[in-house]
TrEMBL record:
Gene: panC
Family from the record: Belongs to the pantothenate synthetase family.
Reaction catalysis annotation: (R)-pantoate + beta-alanine + ATP = (R)-pantothenate + AMP + diphosphate + H(+)
Annotated organism of origin: Kaistia terrae
Protein name (database record): Pantothenate synthetase
Ligand binding ((R)-pantoate): 65, 157
Keyword terms of this UniProt record: ATP-binding, Cytoplasm, Ligase, Nucleotide-binding, Pantothenate biosynthesis
Length: 282
């Protein structure tokens, strides 16, 4: 049977483990998660293993990135099965603090953002990136990993984290890994568990609509017409679209010259009570 990872509940405890590894000259990798681990997370762990000798997976459902109306209470919490999956991959450490450890009573410090955090998700979830950036900075400062892994599925999050790490001069290399998809194209997400069987079938429309819109753009068609077609396909399938846009892949700013800039298509849309996000390179 594979050895279980050591579970650390406090920052001090994690730091003691990391200091011991550092004294041995080992490289440390971190995979920040909110648990409910799926094969996308497992790919992040495998990729961390290629770059580090010791791996910390953090499991923390971060309250500050949820608005009061969102699914913080309902978010799946599956620590025992998450830890069993991580044992299979030989992960050495899990950092699973409680909310008080990350946000001690009376805490008054958060990270504020601009640049890639402006627009898109922020237009619909204004609290979100400040919560993400605050917790990710705390996790990186708790473990000071050499590398940390993030999925491209949350593309804007990845850009925000990269910018933050650059701006705060944190000594961690941020690695973004391609989105893992089901065979029918649906991007893996812990929130897919909320979909009814019928919604699960319809959910494939999001990646299909994006692929079709991307093909039209690549073929030299009008960007606005391609996006309008994509939005219409989603609405017709029963989605309520928050956004389907084409942006500069590095800055996430609106495209000044779509013909020569690196391009990323990003979408967020509701299917019933579930909000799905996805993105592709164009
Ligand atoms: O992508 C996630 O799972 C979360 O936003 C993260 C990066 C673990 C921060 O809570």
């Amino acid at each position: 049977m594979p050895a279980s990872p050591t579970i650390h509940r406090t920052v001090d405890d994690l730091r003691a483990a990391v200091s011991a590894w550092r004294r041995e000259g080992l490289r440390v990798g971190m995979v920040p998660t909110m648990g409910a681990l799926h094969s996308g997370h497992m790919e992040l762990v495998r990729a961390a293993r290629e770059r580090a000798d010791r791996i910390i997976v953090t499991i923390f459902v971060n309250p500050t990135q949820f608005a009061p109306t969102e699914d913080f209470g309902a978010y799946p919490r599956t620590e025992a099965s998450d830890v069993a999956k991580l044992a299979e991959l030989g992960v050495e450490a899990v950092f699973a603090p409680n909310a008080n450890e990350m946000y001690p009573a009376g805490y008054a410090t958060t990270v504020s953002l601009a640049g890639p955090a402006i627009g898109l998700e922020t237009d619909f979830r204004p609290h979100f990136f400040s919560g993400v950036a605050t917790v990710v900075s705390k996790l990186l400062i708790a473990g000071f990993p050499d590398v940390a892994m993030f999925g491209e599925k949350d593309y804007q999050q990845l850009m925000v984290v990269r910018q933050m790490v650059r701006d705060l001069r944190l000594p961690t290399e941020i690695i973004g890994l391609p989105t893992i998809r089901e065979a029918d194209g649906l991007a893996l997400s812990s929130r897919n568990a909320y979909l009814s069987p019928e919604e699960r079938q319809t959910a494939t429309t999001i990646s299909r609509a994006m692929r079709q819109a991307a093909e039209l753009v690549r073929a030299g068609g009008s960007v606005e017409a391609a996006l309008a077609e994509g939005r219409a396909a989603l609405t017709e399938a029963g989605f309520r679209v928050d956004y389907l846009v084409l942006r500069n892949a590095e800055t996430l700013a609106e495209l000044a010259n779509p013909a020569i800039e690196p391009r990323r298509m990003l979408a967020a849309a509701w299917l019933g009570k579930t909000r799905l996000i996805d993105n592709i390179a164009v």
